[in-house]
Amino acid sequence: MKKNELKKILKPLIKECIKECIFEEGVLSGIITEVAKGMAGQRIVAESVVATKNTPDSEKMHATAMALEEQRQERIKKLNESVSLENNIFEGTQEIIPEGNNHSPLAGTAPGDSGVDITGIVSLANGKWKHLV
After folding, report:
1. Cα separations (Å) of 57 from 54, 69, 100?
2. Rounded to an integer, what distance in angstroms lies between the CA atom of residue 42 and that of residue 35?
3. CB 100 within 8 A of CB 108
4. Is the CB of residue 28 less than 8 Å from the CB of residue 22?
5. pTM (2 d.p.)
6. From the DSSP assignment, how many helices (H) and strands (E) are in the chain?
7. DSSP class of residue 107?
8. For residues 107 and 97, is the Cβ–Cβ distance under 8 A?
9. Rounded Cα–Cα distance for residues 99 and 73 (Å)
10. Minimal CA–CA distance to 95: which of 107, 71, 112, 72?
């Protein structure tokens, strides 16, 4: 096989493999990132400050801030007055049980929990439990 014939066969195959590698495996995004990093080092940015006559003075800004803070304090006061905290807000709640051994059949059950009352089960079969077993 001659060099030119081998080149004609391999060139399209190699070209296709390179396209698949670049587009499917995300190599193209890496190449673009590297190029962008290289170009970012060459960029020169000049900043300029433009003074305007309409800049608010500090007294006006301070007065506005004070008025807003006063309104906020009034809202907080009204909210606190509307919510009565005279009673214990945690009344009737129970302590959260720490998660210990999750492999136990009673995991997540409080130690003081009496469980379900099963005294009524005896009367369900009218005393014929021995016959049902």
Report:
1. 9, 19, 61
2. 11
3. no
4. yes
5. 0.26
6. 4, 0
7. T
8. no
9. 41
10. 112
**One-letter identity of residue 22:** I
- One-letter-per-residue 3-state SS of 6-62: HHHHHHHHHHHHHHHHHHHCCHHHHHHHHHHHHHHCCCCCCCCCCCCCCCCCHHHHH
CA distance 105 to 115: 13
Q: What six digits make up the tokens of 107?
A: 């995991």
- On whether the CB atoms of residues 59 and 68 are closer than 8 A, the answer is no
Q: First CA to last CA across the chain, in angstroms?
A: 90
Q: Which tens digit of pLDDT belongs to each residue from 27-77?
A: 777 888 888 887 776 656 566 666 555 666 888 999 999 999 999 999 988
Domain extent listing, the chain: 1-41
**28/36 Cα distance (integer angstroms):** 12
Tokens of 110: 């409080």
Encode pLDDT of 93-114 as tens digits. Answer: 877 766 666 677 777 777 778 8
List of residues 6+ apart from 94 with CB closer than 8 A: 110
